[in-house]
Specification:
Length: 417
């Protein structure tokens, strides 16, 4: 791994100031959100709600992102990246504070929708900003490094969340891991989110290219559907399991919150490792072959994770699946944008964001219902089927791209900042 590490070190020194500030921003956001999200599902159940409502509340942010991504891309096309990121941070802070402070069904649903609005604004800003802030040579490293930074921060956030909750519980609530201890951790996460404001303020860049409506009008619908389809199938499969991973471990193995925090912290660490090995494998196999390899190898680990029934094999399989499956995400992001000119990046990113979150929300809603009747057995089977179908589709429709042109030829052609 020495060559990949040297390659990352050389790439990092070449990143623009906007790219570095965005790396810091997303790392700090990921840390705060992981502190919050580790205990959020447990908090909702502790309030007395059932898993069906947990499925509802888990699907609302995704549905909101799906509903708002395209309108925001059209009407906020001229908004500077800095303003868009600050607006996203403000909405995210309000949503997290509201979810921690209110317990009624209506307020919880409202603030979940607000968190979705924040995520939509961030999503339509992030990929085009990184593409504009990097040269063709740097792009894959920047996308993968940003993913790895976010996941490493999430690893730290999960650990801190478990420790914080144990501290509140033992120090203030008689040792009980109840709603009050979870709420204290969620409010601490709100304070931590404010650290992301300074790097957002240092980003000085405006969006360029076609207005939002024109970009969507010129986007080839057939090509867009074909490019997005494999990832949207994966989104549905992921939505069946991933939003409920803490519930899966907590209910299946009766873990205390500190142990749950440790095991959940391994997941973003696995994602970070996957993100870092992505460019290395792309350079040897090509983008499409790398994505196929990552996705197909993850399927046996997914089956082990769902059906072994033993803690250690489940943890190891979850780590391996998470590393492999998420290694393909930054590779796919560059692959997707490479099929469209720079003027259409925002539109393509918005369509991808809307489609991913709609599929994930539908799956999360369905999974909450299925868990009440079948536990996690049927959701895992659906996820395995989706991952297999997406890998097959990618192989049949795009494998020839790796033999037709080198990896560099699929990169976006606009100049770096």
């Amino acid at each position: 791994m020495s060559n990949p590490l040297r390659s990352y070190a050389a790439g990092f020194t070449a990143f623009s100031s906007n790219a570095r500030n965005f790396l810091l921003l997303t790392g700090l956001m990921s840390f705060a959100q992981s502190v919050f999200s580790l205990v959020f599902n447990l908090y909702i159940l502790e309030l007395g709600y059932d898993r069906d409502f947990l499925g509802v509340i888990g699907s609302i942010p995704n549905l909101t992102v799906a509903a708002l991504a395209i309108p925001l891309a059209v009407f906020c096309a001229a908004l500077s990246a800095r303003k868009a990121l600050l607006a996203s941070l403000g909405l995210n802070f309000a949503a997290m504070a509201g979810l921690a402070s209110f317990t009624g069904r209506g307020p919880l649903m409202f603030f979940s929708a607000l968190s979705g609005a924040s995520a939509a604004l961030l999503a339509i800003t992030a990929l085009p900003l990184m593409a504009r802030s990097s040269s063709e040579r740097e792009r894959q490293h920047l996308f993968s490094f940003q993913f790895a930074v976010s996941m490493t921060a999430a690893f730290a956030g999960n650990l801190v969340s478990g420790w914080l909750t144990s501290f509140w519980a033992s120090g203030f609530y008689g040792g009980g891991e109840g709603a009050q201890a979870y709420r204290a951790t969620m409010l601490a996460a709100c304070a931590l989110l404010l650290a992301a404001v300074p790097p957002a303020l240092r980003i000085r860049e405006r969006r360029e290219g076609a207005p939002g409506g024109a970009a969507f009008a010129s986007l080839p619908p057939g090509l867009a559907l074909l490019v997005l389809a494999p990832q949207l199938i994966i989104a549905f499969g992921a939505g069946m399991i991933m939003p409920f991973l803490n519930i899966f471990f907590k209910s299946g193995f009766a873990l205390p919150i500190s142990s749950l925090g440790f095991f959940m912290a391994l997941m973003p660490l696995a994602m970070a490792a996957g993100g870092l090995i992505g460019p290395w494998l792309v350079g040897r196999l090509g983008r499409v072959r790398a994505m196929i390899a990552f996705q197909s190898l993850s399927i046996p680990f997914l089956a082990t994770m769902g059906f072994s029934g033993l803690l250690l094999p489940t943890v190891l399989a979850t780590f391996a699946r998470t590393m492999l499956m998420n290694a393909s995400w930054p590779v796919y992001s560059v692959f997707m944008l490479g099929h469209f000119p720079a003027s259409q990046h925002q539109a393509a990113s918005a369509l991808y964001t809307a489609g991913w979150n709609l599929a994930s929300a539908a799956a999360a809603r369905l999974s909450g219902r299925l868990q009440m009747d079948f536990g996690f057995t049927l959701p895992f089977l659906i996820t395995i089927t989706c991952y297999s179908a997406a890998t097959l589709l990618l192989s049949r429709k795009f494998l020839k791209e790796d033999s037709k042109k080198p990896v560099a030829a699929t990169a976006i052609k606009e100049e770096a900042e």
